[in-house]
């Protein structure tokens, strides 16, 4: 029996797509094929996939909803797991529990509907709840570490564990999950009661700021670089004269220099080459070495 036949038999009922182009799913609109692209409907299907992959020694990874990544043009070998069907969100008093695939922006709107405050900072951050926990996503002075109570994870060995916020050792765009190889299944957020009107006004204000400053009309991976100590990446890039600087079909946004946008059928290689060039030119101009926030995954073509 071939690997594919064995897979279809053991993972029967799970949505698996073979040799699926990832550019259809990534925010940058770039990326080669995944050997096996999987859409589990619940944590049990996810655990079955991970267990099978481990038994068969097939590599696997979870992409969240692919908002802050660049998938290389050669694609990704093994299983690529998208968790957008694990998207249940529930409210219990002042606590919101959201599955990993829940849309982060929609989760902040659910907090608004229940007049719960603390989640406003995330109202414009694209991505999933799981990815936000993984990266300790943040904006406008807030971050996931400020509100996370606990999360359930699937370990790389296929076991389910509950971790407290302290266990995650949060830092700037960092959590311990990045080293452990675990997968976020769900997260609990501790919020506070607030005024619906005040919360909505703040979310409207932050959304307006985002629309003014960010090039939302183009495919991009969001903020490309981490904030350097004492500086802002976008400002350093702008001061180096790099707004509008292009490699292939990808360019530094004129609207916000911290973003790189796909304006003309760019490739992952265009992104990588542009990132390296910007790092080099900013270093020459200011002496500051920018560090990538975006994750680059997969194989070169």
TrEMBL record:
EC code: 1.3.1.98
BP GO annotations: cell division; cell wall organization; peptidoglycan biosynthetic process; regulation of cell shape
Pathway in which this enzyme or protein is active: Cell wall biogenesis; peptidoglycan biosynthesis
Residues of the active site: 173, 223 (proton donor), 293
Xref: SUPFAM superfamilies: FAD-binding/transporter-associated domain-like, Uridine diphospho-N-Acetylenolpyruvylglucosamine reductase, MurB, C-terminal domain
Keyword terms: Cell cycle, Cell division, Cell shape, Cell wall biogenesis/degradation, Cytoplasm, FAD, Flavoprotein, NADP, Oxidoreductase, Peptidoglycan synthesis
Gene Ontology MF, one: UDP-N-acetylmuramate dehydrogenase activity
Cellular location(s): Cytoplasm
CC cofactor: FAD
Domain FAD-binding PCMH-type: 30-194
Gene3D superfamilies recorded: 3.30.465.10, UDP-N-acetylenolpyruvoylglucosamine reductase, C-terminal domain, Uridine Diphospho-n-acetylenolpyruvylglucosamine Reductase, domain 2
UniProt entry tagged with the keyword Cell division: yes
Cellular component annotations (GO), alphabetically ordered: cytosol
Main location: cytoplasm
Primary enzyme class: oxidoreductase
Record's catalysed reaction(s): UDP-N-acetyl-alpha-D-muramate + NADP(+) = UDP-N-acetyl-3-O-(1-carboxyvinyl)-alpha-D-glucosamine + NADPH + H(+)
Any Pfam family the entry gives: FAD_binding_4
Function according to Swiss-Prot or TrEMBL: Cell wall formation.
NCBIfam families: murB, PRK13905.1
Family to which this protein belongs: Belongs to the MurB family.
The protein's name: UDP-N-acetylenolpyruvoylglucosamine reductase
Species for this entry: Streptococcus mitis
